[in-house]
Fold this protein.
Amino acid sequence: MLDRIRYYINAHSTSLGRYVLEQVLFLCFAWVPSILGVGIRAIVYKLILHSRGFAAIESGVRLGQPNNITLGRNVYIDCGVYLHACPGGIEIGDNSFVMHHAELHVYNFRQIPHAGIKIGRDCLISEFCVIRGQGGVTIGDKVYLAPLVQILAVNHVFSDPTRPIIEQGITAEGIVIEDNVWIGAGAIITDGVRIGQGAVIGAGAVVTRDVPPHTVAVGAPAQVVKDIALEATERVAQPEQMVYL
């Protein structure tokens, strides 16, 4: 029983003392609604996580191992978000938004040295996105994830048919998403992939290989169907399209 309690506490905090402090602050302040709660948490949560400014954290946000979480200036964390920063940590850059019920989980219970999730500046992680960072996930600046995107930096080994898959271990190579990438709703990014700068991933795509910069990839498995840079140099006059900035 004691071993299970110790395991539970270690999964949620970096020490017993910090666990007690964190749970007291959550009990007192995590539920407080509206701008009042946002203001209180911006101040008191500095005791348990690393913040370079004052982050706006809505009510109902769940934090695991907050001592391994770093938030930049003007970060916004919406209701129901779950951040679990096992060793390797979670870093969210300035002016980035994580919308409601998104889950960022390093899930590094195997002590993988390159685990972690790092998100750049001016990014949007939309509703119900999932980012698993066992192998390390690095997201550049001005990256937009539409709702329900999954970024999964881990894979199960299943090569031995005589053993249960759960006993064969995992691979965790990592995922890199460069600056100015747009990933459409419901897309899945698998382990070991790099998505180049300025690329667009279509809704529902399953990305299993690298995507070059300034291209559009769609389908399952995803295939490049357009070279944005090439098309820009060959574009002919077309009717003007309304663009909202």
About this structure: The first helix runs from residue 2 to 12. The helical segments are 2-12, 16-29, 34-44, 228-234. The chain is about 20% helix and 25% strand.
